[in-house]
Each structure stands twice: as structure tokens, then as C-alpha cells.
Amino acid sequence: MSVESRFTLGVVIPVPQPHRDTLRAWRREFGGEATEPIAPHITLVSGSYLNTWERAAAQVRRVAQQGSQFSVRLGAALTFRPASEVVYLPLESGTEECWALHRALLGDALRHESGFAYHPHLTIAQNVPADRLDAAQAALHEVDLEFTVESIQLFDTASGQWNLSEELPLGK
């Protein structure tokens, strides 16, 4: 099996409206313009694929089809500091389902490549000055957002940018 390390992919949970706009505004305020092109999401896998794109995409489709809708509840902002300069919203519910999807996605043609262990969350700000991280954590200390996860999204980076390849409904 060869790994085409120059090609990576991402599988994420998109955040539906109206929470998407709220989270986008927070990410823009605290994370800066660099967050603008990236829609708020919860990452399930970010890595490379083994063998071919077609095999990896087929695996993501299988996992989505075998999955079920579930609820996610996001809570008050936390930080990964000092390990990583990140402020994020933790999952108050839905963590087990994210872990199950993560494990199922890694079962065949995908690799998860990260310097950190998998931890389901929604990033608000990263790689910005400490005062911006502090402001995000202080301002978002009473977050309580809930939504139903109905789909997952598959992204590719074949052209050097993250490109949405497919949105796959769970359980269909």
C-alpha cells in the first residue's frame, strides 16, 4: 500500500444555521481573517488516504450510510494551552458519537495525522496573540449551543486548498 502524502483529506461535521453564523462571527472576532474561508466544523479525520481517493471516498460514504443522526451540545470556551495556542468549544454531548465516527473512518483507507490525540471540539481561535485567546475564553464563558448532526462532509486538498467534495447524510 502506498501513501500519497501530498494528497490529504478532511472529514468534518458541519454546523447548521443559525449557529453557523454565530460561530463564524465569534471566529472572525477572535481568530481573525484567517478563519473566514473555513466554515465552523467539528473535525472527525484530517489526514491522508491509502491507495486511492476513490477507495477513501467510498469508505467515508459507507461510514455515513451506517451512521445515525445525533445531537451535539457545545459548551463554554476552553483552551488547549500550554500544549497548543487554541481556544475551543468543547462538546457537552455528542462526544461518543464523534469518537465512533472517527474510529469507523480510520478502519480501512484513511489515516489521521495530527501531533495531538483526537479530541472532538470546535475551534474558535488559534495561532493568534495571547490577548485574543484570553478575550475569546472570557467572552465565551456561557456558551450553550445545541444542534442535530445530520451529515458529514468530505474535503480534498488536491489543488492545494480545502475543497468540499461531498456532503453525506447520516444513515441514508
Can you put this structure into words, describing what you see?
The strands form two sheets. Strands 3, 4, 5, 6 and 7 form a five-stranded antiparallel beta sheet that branches. It is built from four helices and nine strands; from the N terminus they run E-H-E-H-E-E-E-H-E-H-E-E-E. With 172 residues, it is an alpha+beta fold. Mean pLDDT is 90; it is low at 1-5. It has helices at 19-31, 53-66, 95-105, 130-139; strands at 3-14, 41-50, 70-74, 78-79, 86-93, 121-126, 145-149, 151-156, 163-169.
Furnish the topology, listing elements before pairings.
Elements: E1 3-14, H1 19-31, E2 41-50, H2 53-66, E3 70-74, E4 78-79, E5 86-93, H3 95-105, E6 121-126, H4 130-139, E7 145-149, E8 151-156, E9 163-169
Could you give the order of the helices and strands?
EHEHEEEHEHEEE
Low-confidence segments, ≥5 residues, pLDDT <50?
A: 1-5
The percent range for helix content is: 25-40%
The biggest sheet amounts to: 5 strands, antiparallel
What is the averaged pLDDT score?
A: 90
Structural class estimated from helices and strands: alpha+beta
In percent terms, what proportion of residues is strand?
A: 35-45%
- How widely separated are the two ends? 30 Å
